[in-house]
Design brief:
Layout lengths: L2 E4 L4 H8 L5 E5 L7 E3 L18 E4 L6 H6 L1 H22 L2 E7 L21 H16 L4 E5 L1 E3 L8 H10 L4 E5 L3 E2 L1 E3 L3 H11 L3 E4 L6 E2 H14 L6 E5 L19 H7 L6 H13 L3
Parallel strand pairs: 1-2, 1-4, 2-3, 4-5, 5-6, 6-11, 7-10, 8-13
Antiparallel strand pairs: 9-12
Helix pairs in contact: 3-4, 5-9, 7-9
């Protein structure tokens, strides 16, 4: 197995670079380390990448991931989220490379929750519609392609702007009150685990759709409550939490309420289990807030 990661300058891609392997190549916009190659999917071709003939799998990570930008600029973002990855799929086929597309939980409408790989996608966001369009192209034009549907992915570092770190930044600013949706549910994926998960999926010979994440249905409000409780226990003043609906926020599109995903297929393929939320929160409290 040898892996090409296209779009290694993003949140997930940087994790691959952080623990780089000698049999992997990472494309970025700016060079920063060994095994990295400057590559622009809109103008460059895979054949131009040094060592491409040794590559067996290509992970397509590049994307416009902000749902609001997708609805405000559907043509421009569709070029990034559909046209370019479909082009990469075609080039992978020509080179005999297995394409792996990074999709999203937001291909679902959020009416049911705990979706498995057999659940029929029905996106209500433009971002989700773009993702499912690329999914369908890959699955209909390749026999060996893989679609990885990511849940909400978070990190363990201050400043990474992911779920818990962003909350800690808000809390440390000292607001008296913090509003949080109590009707939104999702699964979680620790970004630190993504490279190992992807490598194991590749080694398993998986094909088709695979749901990543911890396979649990988390409430946004309950997660924030647990974080505040842990911070308070460690002597940090926390705000009062105010329950609101996700639909109370001024967003360009109505958000799906429950996009949690079943991960049994992932566990069968990789044998991996996720850390508990409580363990993650305690580690975040120590690492992000400076407490011991």
């Amino acid at each position: 197995m040898s892996l090409l990661v296209i779009g290694a300058n993003g949140f997930i891609g940087r994790q691959f670079v952080k623990e780089s392997k000698s049999n992997e190549i990472y494309t970025v916009r700016r060079l920063g380390a060994d095994h990295q190659v400057c590559f622009d999917p809109s103008s460059d071709h895979l054949r131009s990448i040094p060592g491409i003939t040794q590559i067996t799998h290509a992970l397509l990570l590049f994307a416009e991931r902000e749902p609001d930008r997708c609805i405000l600029d559907p043509i421009g973002t569709r070029f990034v989220n559909v046209d370019l990855p479909c082009k990469m799929v075609d080039e992978c086929k020509e080179l005999g490379i297995t394409p792996i597309f990074a999709s999203s939980e937001l291909v679902f409408d959020g009416k049911v929750g705990m979706y498995d790989e057999a659940s029929v996608p029905h996106p209500i966001l433009e971002y989700g519609r773009q993702k499912i369009a690329t999914e369908q192209y890959l699955l209909s034009t390749t026999d060996n392609g893989v679609v990885l549907r990511f849940p909400k992915t978070y990190g363990l570092c201050r400043g990474d702007r992911s779920l818990f770190a962003a909350w800690i930044d808000q809390i440390l600013e000292g607001p008296k009150e913090l509003s949080c949706a109590d009707d939104q549910y999702f699964s979680l994926q620790l970004v630190n685990d993504v490279p190992k998960v992807v490598r194991r999926i590749i080694l398993s010979g998986a094909r088709g759709v695979v749901h990543l994440g911890d396979g649990r249905r988390h409430s946004r409000f309950e997660l924030l409550s647990k974080l505040c409780s842990a911070l308070h226990t460690n002597g940090i003043q926390v705000p009062e939490l105010r329950r609101v609906s996700i639909h109370d926020f001024d967003l360009p599109e109505k958000r799906p309420t429950d996009v949690s995903m079943d991960n049994r297929k992932l566990v069968e393929l990789t044998g991996m289990s996720s850390q508990s939320v409580e363990e993650v929160i305690m580690r975040l409290v120590r690492e992000c807030s400076g407490t011991k």
